């Protein structure tokens, strides 16, 4: 448990990227943080595959994926097998009062600062749109 805590602290110090930015912003209605992360992972990994393809090839190989298999697809399939919701709307999140403000908050979140790539606002808006459903 101590090593898990140390690893978690190191991860937070490093920066957790768009997935955790999303989960932090949309964690305002009592949904489990892990569920929010699972919802955001496939669209975030799709973005990472476009913006940091060499790093994502390493992730794919580490996960044991077949050559050409996308991490984003593998995670979406895993979410289905685990019966996790595909979107915020799929787990009853409800309408967002100010969608653009939520996008801005996700984009400006500190977790994006040390991501393997610096996401643009348009990329974050696409991620939020995909994850919202």
SS field, number of helical segments = 7
Mean pLDDT: 90
CATH homology group: Dehydroquinate synthase-like - alpha domain
The CATH architecture designation is: Up-down Bundle
For the record, what CATH class applies? Answer: Mainly Alpha
Please describe the topology of this protein:
Layout: H1 2-14, H2 17-25, H3 33-51, H4 53-62, H5 71-81, H6 99-108, H7 121-132
Helix pairs in contact: 2-3, 2-6, 3-4, 3-5, 3-7, 6-7
What does this structure look like?
- This protein has a single domain (2-132), classed as Up-down Bundle (Dehydroquinate synthase-like, alpha domain), CATH 1.20.1090.
- The chain is globular, with a radius of gyration of 15 Å.
- It has helices at 2-14, 17-25, 33-51, 53-62, 71-81, 99-108, 121-132.
- With 133 residues, the protein is mainly alpha-helical.
- The mean pLDDT is 90.
Report a brief summary of the structure.
This protein is mainly alpha-helical. It is built from 7 helices and no strands. The chain has a single domain (2-132), classed as Dehydroquinate synthase-like - alpha domain (Dehydroquinate synthase-like, alpha domain, Up-down Bundle), CATH 1.20.1090.
Key traits:
Dehydroquinate synthase-like, alpha domain, 133 residues, mainly alpha, single chain
